[in-house]
Amino acid sequence: MLKNKRMKTLFYTICLCLTLSASATAQEGAIFSKGEKAVNVHHVGSVWLKELNVADSIFNYSTAVAIFDANARLDWHKHPGGQILLIIEGTGYYQEKGKPRQTVKKGDVIKCLPDVEHWHGATATSGFTYIATTPTEKGKTIWLQKVTDAEYGISK
Amino acid sequence: MLKNKRMKTLFYTICLCLTLSASATAQEGAIFSKGEKAVNVHHVGSVWLKELNVADSIFNYSTAVAIFDANARLDWHKHPGGQILLIIEGTGYYQEKGKPRQTVKKGDVIKCLPDVEHWHGATATSGFTYIATTPTEKGKTIWLQKVTDAEYGISK
């Protein structure tokens, strides 16, 4: 099929463009470098956490970026000072106690009030990334029970 | 050259893939929709501002996204409570009084302490976007003088 030399050249040039384009797309996706891979104490799956600014007497909220692979989710937990999540990539879940699980996506802003029990994580098929600002004067995170398969949406 | 029907099909399929890929790349760039175009009172050029969360008694800092076209810059100003900037797209400038102008880019985190006079803006050739968290209990922004051409880097 590609015996014609000109056609071969054209074909390989186009393949190269496709590859470069895909590569550029992948590079554009990551705003912040992955931080430390979090040890699986309070979550399931792969999560990377990077502290962008530690709370102090001037900025009384921590600022961090969290990257979740598909299927990763935090355990139920709550923040004494509340938390704001800015979803900057992908699709995930957010659920508060007593309310249905919500699907959240890039561009969404979630405001979690103090002491509201909740969990968040990637979906089973898509990773996600968010920036979290968390007022810490009253403490940062109180961890609770694991998210059940039914809550996460895994049918048996 | 493309008289062969099979080659024509292959060629057009590849062109379609290239187009879709470029389109996906463009869509991926914008995390938050542009807010309101800011009236040019305290800045030069085109700036769009979107409040993601208004400060209140629980979260005592405002959270906003600002999008600057190339050449746009804020006037010199200061924040009584300080400000944190998370650069999420492009390249820009940040300068504090008495210090050299810095080039800042996607992935950078800038912590501006309370009452430090500073300015920030896009470069002459690249727009940029940042998320700003600004403690507001002591007031939000005090505007000062315009950035001079020399400060911005415009040579005559």
Radius of gyration of chain A: 20 Å
- The overall pLDDT average of chain A reads 89
Quick one: which chains have the greatest interface?
Answer: A-B, 40 and 40 residues
Largest sheet of chain A, described in full? 8 strands, antiparallel
Pattern of helices and strands of chain A: HEEEEEEEEEEEEH
Q: Say what oligomer this is.
A: homodimer
Percent range for β-strand residues of chain A: 35-45%
Distance between the termini of chain A: 49 Å
Q: Tell me, briefly, the overall form of chain A.
A: globular
The secondary structure category of chain A is alpha+beta
Number of alpha- plus pi-helical segments of chain A: 2
Determine the fraction of residues in helical runs of chain A and give it as a percent range. 10-25%
Number of strands of chain A: 12
| Unreliable residue stretches of chain A | 23-27
Brief summary of the model shown:
Chain A is an alpha+beta fold.
Account of the 3D structure:
Two copies of one chain form a homodimer. By secondary structure, the first copy, chain A, is of the alpha+beta class. In chain A, 19% of the residues lie in helices and 38% in strands. Chain A contains two helices and twelve strands, in the order αββββββββββββα. Chain A has helices at 5-29, 149-152; strands at 36-37, 43-44, 47-53, 61-68, 73-74, 77-78, 83-96, 102-105, 109-112, 118-122, 128-135, 142-143. In chain A, strands 1, 3, 4, 7, 8, 9, 10 and 11 form an eight-stranded antiparallel beta sheet that branches. In chain A, strands 2-5 form a two-stranded antiparallel sheet. A two-stranded antiparallel sheet of chain A has the order 6-12. The longest helix of chain A has 25 residues, at 5-29. The radius of gyration of chain A is 20 Å and the shape is globular. Mean pLDDT of chain A is 89; it is low at 23-27. The A-B interface holds A 1, 6-7, 10-11, 14-15, 17-18, 21-22, 24-25, 28-29, 31-33, 52-53, 58-61, 63, 81-82, 84, 86, 88-89, 106-107, 109, 111, 113-114, 131, 133, 135 and B 1, 6-7, 10-11, 14-15, 17-18, 21-22, 24-25, 28-29, 31-33, 52-53, 58-61, 63, 81-82, 84, 86, 88-89, 106-107, 109, 111, 113-114, 131, 133, 135.
